[in-house]
Amino acid sequence: MNFRKYLTPILHVLAWGVVYFLPDLLFEAPAGPVFMVKRNLHFVLVLFFFYLNYFVLVPRLLLHKKQIFFSLAILVALVFSFYANDFVMQWTREKYEKQTVNFRKSVSPRTLKKIELRRERHRHAENAGTVIVVLMGFFISTISRETREWYIQEKKRKEMEKQKLISELSFLKSQVNPHFLFNSLNGIYALSIKKSDKTPEAVLQLSDLMRHMLYESEKEEVALEKEVQYLRNYIQLQKLRMPEGSQVIFDVAGDIPGKTIAPMLLIPFIENGFKHGAAANGVNIQIKLQVKGDVLTFDMINNVSKAASKDTSSGIGLVNVRKRLDLLYGDKYQLDYKESNGNFVVHLHLTLEK
Q1: Is residue 95 helix, strand or coil?
Q2: Domain residue ranges in the chain
Q3: Can you identify the CATH homologous superfamily of domain 243-351?
Q4: I need a labelling partner for 196 at 20 to 30 A (CA). Which of 148, 179, 255, 333 fits?
Q5: Residue 113 class from Cβ within 10 Å (0-12 exposed, 13-18 middle, 19+ buried)?
Q6: pLDDT (tens digit, 9 = 90+) per residue, 179-220?
Q7: If you average pLDDT over each of 53-57, 158-162, 232-236, 311-315, which comes out highest?
């Protein structure tokens, strides 16, 4: 049984029960048929116009910017309530207050005129009270419906933003993965041209990396330990084709276990270092990843070859990383990278999700 399906009707019934018995809760309500008719009439009028306004007037008039027709509809309802109360209460008093006839015969005309004048003022005040009660019902109904519409629209807006975010992230991931694969295959191709004995090992390394990409990269977050191991595997793959004199230092420290991070977020930096750091004297890359509490810092410096080719895909990984950081972490990160004195320097300060 889906209880949430019946939650709203149950709450409405309980709320109207409170409204009906509110006079008994606030003060000692007078007994007698006249008061009961008055209470029931007010309740029926408020109940009817509340839902008429909630389901018809607000959605069809007010929310469609037809304020004039909406105001006229409320005015008609208030006038109707005024005269409906006047008619019903007059009829009720004539039916149940039979002693009034005998009372009229027992008093002087002057006294009777004063009594009639007082009753007339009471009658108009009573009708005005009915109008105020109905108007309060309209006010609460309008606020309730507009709040509900705002909530629905806000939910739709957030859902659209979420879908847009998912689509954009999927697009960025689809760029990262082929870009990574392209660079890795280039490396293996270079080994195969040289007929290197390391080629089978490189293919196996690539297979392990692809397995991570297929099963982990589609998740919103992965264990930081797995991502670090993925980076180690990628570095091992690249080392197979590195020239003599190359040096890669990957230092990991801090509280790594139990932390999570968006997948494939750090690999573009290392990928970029290997791609543009190839030089005659080898690649020189220094990487330090450290976690303190919920804060991850990633620092990397690599040499930049003047002869490195600048194809159309150059830098696409770094651009994608910043976009993904904006979408996933908002203002919880700081990323700086620059080229200085023949080196490319990267600094990332990231607050991980708890």
Answers
A1: helix
A2: 3-160, 243-351
A3: Histidine kinase-like ATPase, C-terminal domain (3.30.565.10)
A4: 179
A5: exposed
A6: 667 767 777 887 788 788 878 888 887 787 777 766 666 678
A7: 53-57
